[in-house]
Amino acid sequence: MPYQSDYLSKVKTASDFLRPHTEGLNLEFGLTLGSGLGDLAEKIKVTAEFDYSEIPHFPTTTVAGHEGKLIIGKLAGIPVIGLKGRKHFYEVADLPNNEGILQTVFAVHFLAELGVKNYFVTNAAGGLNLDYEVGDLMIIKSHINFLPNPLLGQHFAFTRVDNGQIIERFQPMNGAYDEKLRQKLSLASLEFKKNIHQGTYLAVTGPTYETEAECIAFRDGLKADAVGMSTTPEVIVARNRGMKVVGLSCITNKIAKDGTNATNHEEVKAILESSEVKNRLSTIVTKFFESLY
Q1: Is 66 a catalytic residue?
Q2: Catalytic: 291?
Q3: Which residue in the list 28, 41, 88, 261 is annotated as catalytic?
Q4: Domains of the chain
Q5: Which end of the chain, C or N, has fewer beta carbons within 10 A?
Q6: 275 is catalytic
Q7: Residue 274 bears catalytic tag
């Protein structure tokens, strides 16, 4: 049986498994912690924790730096589900019949089925903007999507979390990253003002890093500020399900003016594991959630 033929049922089965563990919590945010960012989960006051493999149909992760754990609890008093790691499209791009991209966005549909109203997405990214330095953070203002669109193919009868209506076939993407939430994230970042930017995130499939020509085209032609291998399909689904979105990229490598992107996965992980970057991320995210009261 093709994966997508009972995709809606798979998502509902997964969410029904977790639902008893969320009783009494008015879940406000889903928080996806990208490459090397799982330590942010330490800020969550945990009430329940699961390996992805324990949740029916939930895609597991295969990439170093993505632990593959789901955490239920409160972050600065706000009820959240924290996702330590994500499924990337490049892990499952060889699967037939659109299954790869549907696995990539499974977690966001799962959050929406649990009634989660807001989606906070994080990622590691290369800095195209010449003003960005390694260890800086970028609040995502908009994105350019070069990954398969997750709304392609079969239209599923999922409902929106904001009004209960069946999701639209054609999803507007203007204002994809909520302005009010971006403002709150910016205010939460004032302590690190010189290391914080707002910009455009561009998503490619990977798993190769970009050539000189690609970097120059992305920066000078498309005016992208950072480039990575995730996030945009998740945001498309989150908006389609009626969730508000806020996003934060950690700049793990600086792409040179001539387009040279001399990095590797070990270097990216090393930046994310530095105490300075960890402190910057955890402080900002905690202050953001504190501001939501």
Answers
A1: yes
A2: no
A3: 88
A4: 3-290 (3.40.50.1580)
A5: N
A6: no
A7: no
DSSP 8-state class, residue 25:
-
Q: Is 67 a catalytic residue?
A: no
- Active site annotation includes 15: no
Rg (C-alpha) for the chain, rounded Å, is: 18
Q: Give 121's contacts (C-beta < 8 A, 6+ positions apart).
A: 32, 34, 140, 231, 234, 235, 238, 245, 246, 247, 248
pLDDT of residue 266: 77
Using DSSP's 3-state secondary structure scheme, residue 232 falls into helix
d(CA 156, CA 166): 9
Q: Which one of 112, 124, 188, 243 is the catalytic residue? A: 124
Which tokens belong to 242?
Answer: 């009626």
Told to judge if 1 belongs to the known catalytic residues of this protein, a careful annotator would answer: no
**Choice between 179 and 25, residue whose per-residue pLDDT is larger:** 179
Average pLDDT of the chain is 93
Which residues, listed in sequence order, are joined to residue 122 by a DSSP beta bridge?
248
pLDDT exceeds cutoff 80 at 257:
yes
Of 15, 118, 123, 230, the active-site residue reads 230
Angle between helices 106-113 and 7-18 (to 10 degrees): 60
145 is catalytic: no
Does the annotation mark 230 as catalytic? yes
pTM flag (> 0.70): yes
Average pLDDT over residues 164-192: 97
Note if 57 is an active site residue.
no
Tens digits of per-residue pLDDT, 102-120?
A: 999 999 999 999 999 999 9
